[in-house]
Structure formats: C-alpha cells, structure tokens
Amino acid sequence: MEGYCAEVTLAGLKGTVRDLRHLARRPAFWLWIAPMAFLAYFFFYPLASIFLLTGQTAQGGLEQVNFWQDVWPALSFTVWQAALSTLLTLIVGLPAAFLFARFRFRGKALLRILTTLPFILPTVVAAAGFNALIGPHGWINLLLMGLFNLQEPPVQMLNGIGVILLAHVFYNTTIVIRVVGSAWAQLDLRLEQAGRQLGASTWRTFREIVFPLLRPAILAATVLVFLFDFTSFGVVLLLGGPHYATLEVEIYIQTLQMLNLPVAGLLSILQLLMTFSLGWLSSVAGGNQRIPLLPKLKGEGMRYPARLSEKVFVAGMAVFLILLLVLPLLALGASSVTRLEANRAQSGPFETGLTLEYYQELFVNPRQSIFYVPPVEAARNSIAYALVAVGLSVGIGLLASLALNRKLWVNRIFGPLLMLPLGASAVTLGLGFLIIFNRPPIDVRSFPLLVPIAHSLVALPFVVRIIQPAMASIPSNLRQAAAVMGAAPWRVWLEVDLPVIGRAILVGSIFAFTISLGEFGATSFLARPETPTMPIAISRFLSLPGALNYGQALAMATILMVICGVSIFIMERVNLEE
C-alpha cells in the first residue's frame, strides 16, 4: 500500500511539473511584445523615416555613388581600426579582469571605480583629458620641455592613429573587466584545483578548464568592444583629425556638412547590416553556453598575493591601469585648477599657478545670455534623465531576458535585434527623432522623455547582456520545487529568481545610469537649450574660444567625473553588502 501511494504521489508530482512546464512555455512569446514594440516605435520607425527620406531624395542618385571612392575607404578603415582596437583592449582587459577576479589588494575598490569612469564619460571629456595630458600644452609636453629646455613639444600624438587606438583601449577596457571579471569571479575554484592535482601546469589548466568556461563571457565582451570601436564617432572626430573617418564620422560629414543623404543612407544601412550580423553570430556562438555557478561564500576564491610573481603582477597591473585609465582623468582635473595662459582679450601680466577661477566663472553669466544654465541644473537634468533611462532599460531588459531564456524560435531573430541600437548612427537616429516626433503628443520641443528614451536604447543591450546569463544560470529544479510546494508564479519570481539575479540587475542599472550620464551624440539633437545635460554644457564651453572657456569646460567635466564616481561608489557599496 505504501509503495502504491508513493507511485501515485510520484506520478502526481511528474504531472504537476509537466503542467507547470507547459504553462511556463505558453506566455513566453508574449514577453517580446513590450521590448519589440519599444524598439519598433522608437528605433526602427525613426530609422525607416531616414531611409525613406534618403530614397526620396536620391531619385536615382545612388547610381552615381562610387563605392570604391565614397564607401570603401571609410568601411575598410572602420573594420581595420575596430579589429586592432579590440585586440589591444583584450590584451589589456583580460589580465585586468584576472586581477579583479582573483586578488585582494589595498585600494581595489577605488581602482575599480576609477577604471569604470572612462567608459561612462562623454567623448568631449575624454578628448579634453587626452589633450590635457599629451596635447601640445599638456602636462607631459610641459614637463619634458621644462626638463630639457625644449622650444617645441616633443610628444606629437594627437591627430594620428595612435591616439585613436589608445583612446579606444581607454574607453572599452572597462567592458572586459566587468563582463569577463564577473564571470571569472564566479567560477568554481575546485575545477582548477582538480586540474593542478592531476599534474596540469597553470597554463594548461587555464587553456583546458578556465578558458572554455569563460569563452561565452569573452565572446560577449569582444562583440561589445568591437561594436563600440566599429561605431566610434567622437574619438575619431575629436582626436583623429580630418585624415581619419569611420562610418559614423562619414555619416556625420555626409549628412550635416555635405548634405549628401544618398551616401549617408547607404553608409547607415551598411553599418546596421554589419551590426545585425555580429549580434546574430554572437547569439548563435555563445547563446547556449553557460557558466556553471555553484554556491560560494562571499569573497571565496580571492586572496592576497603570496608569491613574488603574484605581487609583481598585482603591483605592475595596478600601476599600468592607473597610467592608462586614470592618468588622463587626473590630468583633466589638474588642468581645471591650474592657470597656464592668459584669458582671451586679457591685457597686462597674469599669474600662472593654482586657481579656482574656472569653477567660480561657471556660476557667472557675464553676457546675460538667455541660454545660460547653472551647472547644478544641468547636473539635475542629467540625473533625472538617467533615472528614467534606468527604469526603461531595466524593465524592458528583464522581459527580453525572460524571453531569451525560453526555447522560442523567434529568439534567433529578436535576440540580435536587441543589439542593433549599439551599431546605429547617433546622427541618423537623432535626425529620425527630429523628423518623426515633431507634433503633439510626442514633440521634441515639448516632450523631454525623448532624451531618456534615446539613452535607454543605448543601454538596453548592456542590460540584457548582463541579466540574461545570470537568469540562464538559475537551475530549473529550484523553480519547479517552489511551484510544487504551492508557490504562485509571482512568488517563485520574487523568492527564487530575483535574489539570484538581483546583483546582475544592479550591475545592469549601474551601466544604464552611467551610460545615460555620459551620452552625448543623440542628446545633442534632442536636448532643448533651456534643459541641457552635463555633456551638452561641456560642449558649449568647448565650442567657445579662449582659455577661460576651455578652463570652464574642464571644470564642468571634472564635476561630471565626480558625480559619476560618487554614483558608482554608492552602487558598488550596495553591491558588496548584498
């Protein structure tokens, strides 16, 4: 009798689990409604309007386009510099990811925050930082000219391919540290220890055990870095000079300077096709690979360096990251409080040295301009936009991540579509917004939510890439056990899924928040003069001649760095306390 009851109970449990699986699969397709509707209306619709306008304007003009003269130079340079920049970024980023994933050392939390700052700063700030460090009047040239009594600056890196590659590594090393380092820290150390006990060397253990497990994370980071380098705009435009043009820069030139919409539309289509292809290849190659996560104590797997080689690696890598990623930011901050030349139209002698004049002038409106906005208000606008962008990108990203973790044939199509905003031209998207949203109820002139919507489009792929792998790593038997015990679906989500993916949601929120704070391209089209963001305000000062305006731009850029740094610090502390 007991055996019969056990068989009936087991059969009932199997039937319950089978029914739960069936019910879980039924609404899966509907999870795509909100993400795809959002992308369709705010991304594909504006882009389609640009392509339609391009076709109407061309009227046979595309036949006159010379592919080898108008398209191939920008396309070949874009692919070449993106591939080389990605390789250099991985060479720097993978050892840095190992540093943060496996070692404890003094100042680690501060170094993590400082290495995140380059990624979230707008390109105008990065350009100002490199100019303050290695420009003709930068700190390195001033130091060398003073030491060796030189009349001309010896370091001439601006307006060259070297500074473009350096700036890309400066920007994107954070992606490798965050994506690969997070996965590396979650690997079970017992797998590596078992390999060593079986006689494998450290290199063989990495090659045959660690690297296969990290391959999905490395692939995801590589695709993201390549996409950012492939769509590079501000770095090439501000630091590369007129001799270098990526597809993004060429779209900007053809659209706003040469008014050549047929060529600009063709370049935009090529850019989107390559972005879609990269997203699809990434989804196919790494979509089914998961990193095994086992329960671990907080901080398990991290240690202080013991051997001499480990101490040399930790110290050397930390110093290298400071020189590469932190020194330009320090140069920027130092230049914001240092006066090296006279202001424009200033007569008489002036004193060099430390000064707070640039910060004081931020709150002064000497010309009584109606477009003057105090820095505090610009910072408030940036933070408000960033919070809205976080809510949109995380909410939509959660739905997309849930759908991607279900076995749906549409995932092969919709998954890569989520990556397209990373490869879209900010110039093209901004023009599309201006063309489509020009009448109530959604009007660029009276609908401020368009700014955070544009920001959330950029942040959404990051949020999905961060949340989806964590969600995929949740064992299905945990959900089934909770459901068998009578928990409703919403309770299973709150008590099983959410605690596991909570940290991934927080990391995704950090990226969305900081990306919104530093976004410049689309905002320059959409922000109204009376409601600028911090990057727009910095750009205004940089566009004006004179040492005073340049100093004010550096001062506001430093304020933006402080805001971003404090935000990251608070979120990192919350993350560590979980």
Fold and architecture overview:
41% of the residues are buried. The chain starts with a helix and ends with a helix. With 578 residues, the chain is mainly α. The chain is globular. Mean pLDDT is 76; it is low at 1-26 and 291-295. A hairpin with a 2-residue loop joins strand 3 (438-439) and strand 4. It has 2 domains: 66-335, MetI-like (MetI-like fold, Orthogonal Bundle); 371-578, MetI-like (MetI-like fold, Orthogonal Bundle), CATH 1.10.3720. The chain is built from 24 helices and 4 strands. The strands form 2 sheets. A two-stranded antiparallel ribbon has the order 1-2. Strands 3-4 form a two-stranded antiparallel sheet.
**Count of DSSP-assigned helices:** 24
SS-based class? mainly alpha
* CATH architecture descriptor name of the largest domain: Orthogonal Bundle
Please tell me the overall pLDDT. 76
Helicity range: over 70%
Element order, helices and strands?
HHHHHHHHHHHHHEEHHHHHEEHHHHHH
Task: Give the biggest beta sheet.
Answer: 2 strands, antiparallel
- The strand order across the widest sheet is 1-2
The number of E-state strands comes to 4
Q: Please, what is the oligomeric state?
A: single chain
Q: What's the CATH superfamily of the largest domain, by name?
A: MetI-like
Proportion of β residues?
Answer: under 5%
Principal-axes shape call = globular
Rg: 26 Å
Overall tally of structural domains: 2
Output the CATH class name of the largest domain: Mainly Alpha
Low-confidence stretches: 1-26, 291-295
Termini, distance in Å? 49 Å
CATH topology of the largest domain: MetI-like fold
